[in-house]
Amino acid sequence: AQSVTQLGSHVSVSEGALVLLRCNYSSSVPPYLFWYVQYPNQGLQLLLKYTTGATLVKGINGFEAEFKKSETSFHLTKPSAHMSDAAEYFCAVHVDSNYQLIWGAGTKLIIKP
Amino acid sequence: EPEVTQTPSHQVTQMGQEVILRCVPISNHLYFYWYRQILGQKVEFLVSFYNNEISEKSEIFDDQFSVERPDGSNFTLKIRSTKLEDSAMYFCASSDGLAGEETQYFGPGTRLLVL
Fold first, then answer.
1. Degrees, nearest 5: CA angle B22-B40-A39
2. Arithmetic mean of pLDDT over chain B
3. Which chain A positions have a beta carbon within 8 Å of B103's beta carbon?
4. What is the pLDDT of residue A19?
5. Residues of A with CB under 8 A from a CB of B
6. What is the distance between the alpha carbons of residues A10 and B55, in angstroms, rounded to a whole number?
7. Fewer CB near the last or first residue (10 Å), C or N of chain B?
8. pLDDT tens, residue by residue, A80-104
9. How far is the alpha carbon of B30 from chain A, nearest alpha carbon, in Å?
10. Do A95 and B45 touch (CB under 8 A)?
């Protein structure tokens, strides 16, 4: 069975600082990994995804994530936080044998001015 | 850019009442999904739908729930007799394919409150 763990329900960073949101997964088969973002009062928007190939994937709004199989991790980073990045971020895993996305609990990113 | 839409954005209902949540998936997508998120909890899968039948459903998706694609554009989730614990944000999603690498595109959600 697959599962996703996001460390930290809330992460607070200063504007301009590095953003690091952690995601670890467990899967018995090669997973596909996704980060979604939910802005206040909006739906879930795809930020980036890892399928195959290059392990460092770039997404929208300057975010990127690196798939590390040995660490079963897919952490999300952004070099310099912006106030508009304040949102909730969800890591999810999908495998070919299932139809559903398996979700982490989400991390609320707070940006301090 | 095509997007998934959902109506209504908010719904308040009395326990025991039937509700229908509506979704319009992206027009050329063939796979449709419902998820829900109870306040403060994880997003949970409810059901997937393809070719006019359910492909997979979770334990949450019991006999009180049903899905339908009544026409070429809408995809609905019906809860026959709502319970207090059905209060949640309900998300519809659609995808072009079924493989694990396919992106599921989500609507803005319907916030359901059962009193």
1. 65
2. 93
3. 34, 46, 49
4. 98
5. 31-32, 34, 36, 42-46, 49, 51-52, 90, 92, 94-96, 98-106
6. 35
7. N
8. 999 999 999 999 998 766 778 999 9
9. 13
10. no
Query: Which band of pLDDT confidence, cut at 50, 70 and 90, is reported for residue B1?
Result: confident
Do the chains contact at B45 and A105, CB–CB below 8 Å?
A: no
| Per-residue pLDDT, A49 | 94
| Residue B21 to residue B76: CA distance in whole angstroms | 6
Give the span between the Cα atoms of B100 and B115, in whole angstroms.
38
Counting one residue from A and one from B, how many pairs have CB atoms under 8 Å apart? 60
Phi-psi region of A41 (alpha: psi -120 to 50; beta: other; left: phi over 0): left
CA B32 to chain CA centroid, nearest Å:
8
> Can you list the residues of chain A whose pLDDT is less than 70?
96-97
Does the pLDDT value for residue B25 go beyond 90?
yes
Q: Residue written as tokens 């954005």?
A: B9
Tokens of A99: 């139809």
β-pair partners for A89? A37, A107
